[in-house]
Amino acid sequence: MDVTALAFYAAVCALLSLAAPRLGTPLLRLGVGALVGIAAAALLPVLRAALAL
User: Where are the transmembrane segments (predicted)?
Assistant: First the structure.
């Protein structure tokens, strides 16, 4: 996994999470978004391999 892609997905999801006020404070939303981004980026190669893309 490319570290740059991982950081990009984490940053995008973290910034987008700021629009989700139901999660609580901005810092918590930022953290949740970063974790979602890291998970999505980490799973991308697995999904590509499984789908043979």
Answer: 29-51
Q: How many residues comprise the chain?
A: 53
Cα atoms in the Cβ-side hemisphere of radius 13 Å centred on 8:
6
The ranges assigned to domains in the chain are: 3-51
Please give the chain's pLDDT, 53 residues, in tens: 677 778 778 888 888 888 788 888 889 888 888 888 888 888 888 887 888 85
pTM of the model: 0.69
List C-alpha distances in Å: 21 to 30, 32, 38: 11, 12, 21
